[in-house]
Amino acid sequence: MNNEDTLRWLSRIAEVLHEKAQYLTQLDSPIGDADHGTNMDRGFVAVRNKFPTMTTMDMAAQFKTVGSTLVSTVGGSSGPLYGTAFLRAGTAVTGKTDLNAADVVAMLDAFAGGVTARGKAQTGEKTMVDALAPAVAAAQEALANGADVAEVTARAAMAAEEGTKATIPMLATKGRASYLGERSIGHQDPGATSSLLILQMLAEVCAKSA
């Protein structure tokens, strides 16, 4: 995975978040502020607008540009959470021009760690951590079994999908959804869903560049 792959990944994130903006907002309507899709779309439109200046950057600078852009343009908690995630991912790949499987796992771990640290969340609270934590665990397991970048990211995306679906019966104990108490049960978490989409686009790009 190189800096061109990174830009392809970010481009696909922007595309899919635009396509799924209404869906994410629908998920957010019963348990949030009904703006997750709109906010994420706005943030990645801003990221895409910076692509011309990002083509010559190394991966660390690309991720840090994404992070700072999301913090400044995405409303609610998503901006600081995803912004911190990409900033941490940038730090994890500092000095790298080509990521092997171990590097990608370290990047994913840093990304998820940024969300966990900023949101002070853990699994089982009906947040994006419920998608990201199992994704990292699956990636680490795949790496330990000798998987390449394509397989590592595919396993991460599959685990994120399972984790996202698992948020449906959960009682929210973190964030805006927690105010609803038991009424939060039965709804898929929008943050976990956007995290899933981000990881699915990573797997897609890595599969094509393998």
CATH topology (level 3) name: Serine Threonine Protein Phosphatase 5, Tetratricopeptide repeat
Number of domains: 1
Please trace the helix and strand order, writing H or E for each element: HHHHHHHHHH
Q: Tell me the structural class.
A: mainly alpha
| Main sheet attributes: strand count, strand direction, barrel closure | none
What does this structure look like?
This protein has 210 residues and is mostly helical. 69% of the residues lie in helices and 0% in strands. It is built from 10 helices and no strands. The protein has helices at residues 3-19, 21-28, 36-49, 51-54, 59-73, 78-92, 101-119, 129-144, 149-165, 190-209. The longest helix has 20 residues, at 190-209. The N and C termini lie close together (9 Å). The mean pLDDT is 92.
How is this fold's topology laid out?
Elements: H1 3-19, H2 21-28, H3 36-49, H4 51-54, H5 59-73, H6 78-92, H7 101-119, H8 129-144, H9 149-165, H10 190-209
Helix pairs in contact: 1-2, 1-3, 1-10, 2-3, 2-10, 3-5, 5-6, 6-7, 7-8, 7-9, 8-9, 8-10, 9-10
Which properties best describe this structure?
210 residues, mainly alpha, 10 helices
Short précis:
This protein is 69% helix and 0% strand. The protein has 210 residues and is mainly α.
